[in-house]
Amino acid sequence: xxxxxxxxxxxxxxxxxxxxxxxRLQQIxxxxxQVEWVFTSYPRHAVQLARQIAEQGCRKLIAMGGDGxxxxxxxxxxxxxxxxxxxxxxxxxxxxxxxxxxLKIPADPVDALKLALDGSVGNVDIARIEDDRGHGEYWTNTxxxxxxxxxxxxxxxxxWVRGFLIYFLSALQTILFNHTxxxxxxxxxxxxxxxxxxxxxxCNGRREGxxxxxxxxxxxxxxxxxxxGIRRISRLQMLYTIPFVMQGTHQRLPYACQGRFQKLxxxxxxxxxxxxxxxxxxxxxxxxxxxxxxxxxxxIRMNIPSAG
Length: 308
What we know:
Elements (H helix, E strand, L loop, with lengths): L4 E5 L3 H13 L9 E5 L5 H11 L4 E6 L1 H11 L9 E6 L5 H5 L6 H10 L2 E11 L4 E4 L2 E5 H9 L8 H14 L4 E7 L2 E13 L21 E7 L3 H13 L8 E6 L1 E6 L5 E3 L2 E4 L7 E14 L5
Parallel strand pairs: 1-2, 1-3, 3-4
Antiparallel strand pairs: 5-6, 5-15, 7-9, 7-13, 8-9, 8-12, 9-10, 10-11, 12-15, 13-14
């Protein structure tokens, strides 16, 4: 029988810095009959572990890692019906921690642990993508199509620099080699539109990449998803646009488009490159041309700061 509270930690998060944080937190919440520590060993391991832990009746499952770890934990527990899903806590020790930021979960691991163990509980929205391959997946923070997905993909092959410089070099490569707009036909909550977009980001949370305020107005508790699209522009304009997205001031740009929805269907004239919560959903070998995305309101109960 699994303990009542399980802390599921990705020790490799944030270039393996999470392992040292876990050692420190184990002094505050040591392994016991009430609290169990479980560690992932490989990518997507948390999906399998979270499902097993939830099926064994765990009351509270605390995801310790970055947005990718939370992504995997949620995909694991969503195999269960709502009444059997454990309360989810987050100890944000990744590089971006964007969903935790949108939910105002403390950045300090000790404070986040205290909130996860004893804090108030609120309902949090998630979303689901399904594609023309018959594949589907849940996501919690952002889903990127086009430019930012390719930047994410390219960043994984850059290992000689760190931090923002990785993103900058990946963005330059993407602007030079993947500057192809997507011809999209969309059905947004029953209304049709079409556009040629270099980038489309669907948002449950407010930011991605730790520094890019893609949807400053978004909320993971309003039952809706927001989106940002960048229409066809020159390479130089795309480079010019990046600081606006970092500051969340891109709404003023004439080639930026925003909106809100609960259901969105897309058909593309080119294969879609996609990331979900920073994880590669469809890489540069993608054949996906059609997707359906839907918000799932109040799907997960989470330990989050009270509204007051």
